[in-house]
Design brief:
alpha/beta, 9 strands, 305 residues, 5-stranded mixed beta sheet, Spore Coat Polysaccharide Biosynthesis Protein SpsA, Chain A, 4-stranded mixed beta sheet, globular, 2 domains, single chain
Amino acid sequence: MEIEKLFVIIVTFNGKQWYDRCFQSLRQSSIPVQIVVVDNASTDNTVSYIHSEFPEVYLIESKINLGFGQGNNKGLRYALDQGADYVFLLNQDAWIEPDTINELVRIYKENTEYGILSPMHLNANKTAIEKGLMHYIADYRITTSDLINDLYFRRTRDIYETQYVNAAAWLLPRKTLVTVGGFDPIFFHYGEDDNYMLRIKYHGLKIGICPKMSVCHDTERREIQKTYIDLTSKNCLLVRFTDINKNESVSRFIRYNMRNALLKGLKINFHSAKVLFNESVYIWKLRRQIEYSKIQNCKKTNSWL
């Protein structure tokens, strides 16, 4: 029987505080994995540290910061070229249990309609569900309410459908990569996973959470900066206009926003007017990229890889 090829891809950027827990957990995986690291031009000696402490890692060094999506794309391309059957995307600030990946593969084989499978995300101390994930599984419009009921009554199934789970720990079967492709490079950082899940939906696949499996995701030690807030605000717009499940009109949006900006200005509400104006300019500048992005993402192929 041929052994399946499973690659774990981690995009690193100045995250030495997490590497030991992250990489050691992969060494202890009950299913053999090839670790692929794409380093986004770290300045904290990440490259030398990984070479020294984790020599089994296949390390791809980028001279510039490619962002999360394009960094992962480099790893995904390498994995596909090596004949990967599965790819597991793991954040640098996350670590798995020994059976996490093995069980996700088992669950996928019994539920091949799923394009993304994710374990439950816990905080670093395993005392709570990670706050970001909790937000989405508690919303019945995003995740089936069966999950909350079954968690309470301790009768969980292997997998539950959701519309969203962040890309901190995604199992992607090869079928997903050759059908949906990689992350859209129109996104530098933030929003690329939202866009990818919308493409999963368009291509008739599902997104699943597997509550019997877990990963620790140490989001509590991250520094939230103003640039993050600005980026997420803009990228929410970009996610909206690159959604291939809908047909949002850029020109209609621009007209609507500019008219409202004028009205806000006449009412001396200059802050709101400026926000609307800046949103319009941002989307207008990207209009041709958005159009190309939607055309490419509708194709059933390994786009962007």
